[in-house]
Amino acid sequence: MSGKDGIRRSLNDKILYTNLKNFASAYKASKANAYAGLDFTAMTKEMNNLKAMTREKCEALFEEFKANAEKSGAKVYRASGSLDACKYIEKICKDKNIKSIVKSKSMTSEEIKLNAYLENRGIKPVETDLGEWILQLAGEHPSHMVMPAIHKSRGQVADLFNALLNAGLDRENINAMVKTARHALRDSYFEAGAGLTGANVAVASTGAIGIVTNEGNARLSATVPPVHFVLLGYEKLVPDFKTALKVVRMLPKSATGQRISTYTTWIKGQVPCETSKTGQKEVHYIFLDNGRLAFFDHPLFSEALKCMRCGSCANVCPAYEMVGGHVFGHVYLGAIGLIMTAMFHGEEKARDIMKMCIGCRACSTNCPSGIDLQKIIAELNVNIGGKFGLNPLKKFLYSNILSSGKRFRVIMKAGSILAAPLTTGGKIKKIPFAGREINFRELPSIKQKTFTDIMSGRSSVQNPKGRIFFYPGCAVEYFYPQMGTALVNFLEKQGYQVDIPDKAACCGLPAIHGGDGEGGRKTISACLAQMKNPDDYEAYLVLCPSCGFAVKEDFKHYTEDRPEDFKKAGLISEKVKSFAMFIKDKKLTDVSFNKEAKVTYHTPCHQKRGLGSSAEDLLASLLGDSFIPMQDSDVCCGFGGSWSVEYPGISAGILDKKTENIEKTGADTVLTDCPGCVIQIAGGLGKKGKSTKVMHLSEFLR
């Protein structure tokens, strides 16, 4: 299920919405508790280093694992791809007249589509993980890596059991459902000729594997039948138990918010087995390549192979939370699923779902393996855009309009005139003929007088105590010039000289996020030319953290082939700060504000997860009891620039959750550090007829 129809269907699924919303909220609290007292950031850095692997290192670990596994009586097979792995399992089953296999949850078996292969050849696979078994009965595939049936309600499960098993269950009796599943599955373990599991780690120094579960089904699948298949990717190899235990320590905390899982099973080679004619279990380790070995030496995908399959990137993804894994993924789900779809199933299958990433970076900062998932997705978007092409209108916009400050200005000036008849009180209440889905929020009008227009002819500060360069970005330039003038006035009052670009220029982020690397490069070059000499300034300030993050990261990446620009981008990168960051760094406590306001704060995605800061502590210290913290303050508001136009239904759903949390605070004023967030939140609250003020921090502090 994919495309616009799939998105619409998921958005209309109330059970899916409720399940994902409740889980996302509970998960954040559980994960925080699970990591309480631990340094998550330090642990992720260590894990990223521990999981670093070149092909050469992987081959060495594999040979060590193979030698130790074979010493203990196991067989080790290298499968080049999906078909090779399936054929190997089929051959063993045919040789031993095996008619059924019990399987524990295995995303690698989903990757190679093993169930369908075996069924077509008369071998019955039986999923024994409760969620996987429910989906097997329903004829569906998983919608989450760790909780595959998260999209199902208890009532739906009861109906399924009643229809297919004649169970006669009450729709609310969970214990009875579990007993029904246990009773139905119990005989499968003893009837099966083989069991199949994956592995969370494969320890090279001993030839042992570790499996982490909550149900014990993997332990039964591995121990009861006479044959045990272990299907795993090379990325599961670790050198020793010390490393393995560190993986096992983090996995449940990030997967489900548990301190430890219920079952951790260690298996090494042949063991006594009562159901085997020889008295010994036959064990086959099947290592799947499917491109992995080559990817270990890839500058981008080698990072993705550090994934421990915890699913946390889906747990914190605002887009996934709205539509689930049947839409936001292919076989692998969530942010890592977008990447692995391109790696293992081809860019053609990845090209559409890749666009669903809003770019909030929640996945990157929550990954226990320290993988910058959003960075990889952004790079893939550009690569796929170059390979398959872009919408001609978008391509023209990115490469010919945004890259030219002069042309962009002409277009926006024309837009301000054309939009005038639609504007009431500075707001566009409704876009004609756009449909209800697009009109989920009000929009700000394009101002006829831009920020640079207002600032022209301004006199310099006499004897300034410092010089600041302020980069306004497109939103401040054309929609909210008052945010920029407020910042300039504030800093001049504090004794700083503030310089701005001679001409407005886009930061390039829209083009890059849209998949147009060439347009992004051109736009960055034009913007960089306007940013003057970094040696003259102690800071480069932004009011849009997305612009700030682009200047900090993308400018360097997209100027690597131009030494002079790269040097300038690097110097500027070190000086990029948000308004709140500069106030805190300089200890500018001589500020005034509306002391009667009850204030809450929304943390923009790239403020906290890009520039590495939030204004919450600043506001709490300034406002005292008048500041009311918001639940999930740092969760995305659903804007994402043009993303909210491409995916309005998802954007509106994310926004609804944000406005619900705002209303719970009882605040009369919402502050944020991003003009894009102001567009989204003010537009959503305005559409609902709410009187809550939404403003940038620069407008509030004077």
Walk me through what this model shows:
There is one protein chain. This protein is α/β, with parallel strands linked by helices. It contains 36 helices and 20 strands. It folds into 4 domains: 178 residues, Rossmann fold (3-Layer(aba) Sandwich); 83 residues, Orthogonal Bundle (Fumarate Reductase Iron-sulfur Protein, Chain B, domain 2), CATH 1.10.1060.10; 185 residues, no CATH class; 112 residues, Rossmann fold, CATH 3.40.50. Helices cover 50% and strands 12% of the residues. β11 and β12 form a beta hairpin. The model has no long low-confidence stretch (mean pLDDT 94).
What key attributes describe this structure?
702 residues, alpha/beta, Rossmann fold, Fumarate Reductase Iron-sulfur Protein, Chain B, domain 2, 6-stranded parallel β-sheet, 4-stranded mixed β-sheet, 50% helix, 12% strand
What's the layout of helices and strands?
Layout: H1 3-11, H2 14-34, H3 40-50, H4 55-71, E1 75-79, H5 82-95, E2 100-103, H6 107-111, H7 114-119, E3 124-127, H8 130-138, H9 154-165, H10 174-191, E4 194-197, E5 201-203, E6 208-213, H11 217-223, E7 227-233, E8 237-238, H12 241-255, E9 263-268, E10 282-288, H13 292-295, H14 301-304, H15 312-315, H16 318-323, H17 334-345, H18 347-354, H19 362-366, H20 373-388, H21 392-401, H22 405-418, E11 423-424, E12 427-428, E13 443-444, H23 451-455, E14 466-471, H24 473-478, H25 481-493, E15 496-499, H26 509-513, H27 517-529, E16 539-542, H28 545-557, H29 563-573, E17 576-578, H30 579-586, E18 599-602, H31 605-608, H32 616-623, H33 643-646, H34 648-665, E19 669-672, H35 675-687, E20 693-696, H36 697-700
Parallel strand pairs: 1-10, 2-3, 2-4, 4-7, 5-8, 7-10, 14-15, 14-16, 16-17, 18-19, 19-20
Antiparallel strand pairs: 5-6, 6-9, 11-12, 12-13
Helix pairs in contact: 17-18, 17-20, 18-20, 21-27, 28-29, 34-35
